[in-house]
Amino acid sequence: MKNVHDVIVIGAGPIRIAAAAQFLSRGLQPLVLEKGTSAGSAMLEWGHVRVFTPWSYMIDEVLKKVNDSTFGLQAGIFTRDLYRAPKAWDTLEVGGVVIGDVPSWRVDNMPYGGVKDSGLGREGVRWAIQDMTEERLMVVRTLR
To answer: Are 131 and 111 in contact (CB under 8 A)?
Structure first.
């Protein structure tokens, strides 16, 4: 018996993995093909670790895998059980955790930035103003 897939995704970098997730959300069965020394090697090479698996089975392993990366920009956690979200927040070594959306989701006024090899500092309105502000001091003393 042949395996039948609705779509084949060639490559497992961050964009193609996101595309595979979209296919799944639309009820299509993707087959993701990648080249590498181990499963997920392309994701690790790009510094993104996106693992789609039932939470209850592998969450500790997944959180460890994310933390094992030299990068730590942001993480996206998809769960219907918001009581599980704090575990990801408490465990992940990343600049931000987005619950219910992709890690790149943001609005302008929220801080955005990473830890480890994902860069220095933060983006956002507050940090932009801070970066463009030069602090100065003026002291006035009067003689009596």
So the answer is: no
